Amino acid sequence: QKEVEQDPGPLSVPEGAIVSLNCTYSNSAFQYFMWYRQYSRKGPELLMYTYSSGNKEDGRFTAQVDKSSKYISLFIRDSQPSDSATYLCAMSGGGNNRLAFGKGNQVVVIP
Amino acid sequence: GAVVSQHPSRVICKSGTSVKIECRSLDFQATTMFWYRQFPKQSLMLMATSNEGSKATYEQGVEKDKFLINHASLTLSTLTVTSAHPEDSSFYICSAPTGTGDEKLFFGSGTQLSVL
Fold first, then answer.
1. Do the Cβ atoms of B44 and A45 come within 8 Å?
2. How far is CA A61 from CA A35, A47, A64, A96, A99, in A?
3. Who's near A82: CB < 8 A, 6+ residues apart?
4. pLDDT confidence band for A97 (50 / 70 / 90)
5. What are the distances in angstroms from CA A38 to CA A44, A55, A62, B61, B94?
6. Span between the terminal Cα atoms of chain A, in Å
7. Which residues in chain A have their CB less than 8 angstroms from residue B42's CB?
8. Pairing of β B10-13 and β A71-76
9. Stretch (H or E) spanning A85
10. Has residue A1 got a pLDDT over 70?
């Protein structure tokens, strides 16, 4: 079993729809959870960051962490064509910045 | 967020040549930087950890003589792909933590290497 599982998609949604992405993980020591957005042939950009369990909201983006289920989610409300990108989940147990990444989920928002 | 600058963004070279990629932290000091490789539609694969003032730590299966890493200052790490071959063609990305203990990594814009 891989440390982090993420369905690679692709996921196509119409503009304005809610995008729902998730990752599962196996390492109960993970405490730091991140979502990165990566446009084609660009470096990943940190989108959301959560420490331990809970929800975090930033504009149209909401990140949720459920440590009891080892499950994290990213929601994008009122999706825009500019949200079309690959979204990677990443997590760490802390102490060395060695993040475990999901495979990435390609999202396409259709105008 | 913190800014990591990576150059060049694209390199096309002949087989057998060496290519150097630079990674700079612009507004913070980075004692550690990470180098990743990414194939199309795949996730990031950690190649090595670059440590300022000491030898890099390579992941299993990564040839240290092929991928030379130098971290000469607190803001600059370089990756040199020596005697590049077509199978080395890939997207290379560097990243750096800010050192604040929050485990966040900030990435460079990546370098697309194409070896002919």
1. no
2. 10, 9, 10, 27, 21
3. A109
4. confident
5. 4, 22, 17, 26, 14
6. 37
7. 103-104
8. unpaired
9. strand A85-92
10. no
Please name the member of B6, B42, B103 whose beta carbon is closest to the beta carbon of A43.
B6
Question: What's the rounded Cα separation, in Å, for the pair A86 and B99?
Answer: 26
Segment A22-44, tens digit of pLDDT? 999 999 999 999 999 999 999 99
* Residue B70 near residue B5, CB atoms below 8 Å: no
Report how far Cα B1 is from the mean position of its chain's Cα atoms. Answer: 20
Rounded (5°) CA angle A92-B41-B99: 30
Q: B82: distance to nearest CA of chain A, Å?
A: 23
Instruction: Find, among B21, B92, B19, B25, the residue nearest to B62 by Cα.
Output: B92
Structure tokens at A14: 């119409």
In this prediction, residue A30 carries a pLDDT of 93
| Least-confidence region, from A51-55, A74-78, B109-113 | A51-55
pLDDT at B65 over 80: yes
Gyration radius from chain B CA atoms: 13
CB proximity B100 to A under 8 Å: no
- Residue A43: name the closest of B23, B65, B25, B111 by CA: B111
pLDDT digits (tens, 9 = 90+) for A15-26: 999 999 999 999
Phi and psi dihedrals of B31, rounded to 5?
-75, -20
Contacting B residues, span 5-24, partner chain A, CB-CB under 8 Å = 6
The rounded distance, in Å, linking the Cα atoms of B58 and B35 is 10
Q: Tell me what the mean pLDDT of segment A92-111 comes to.
A: 89
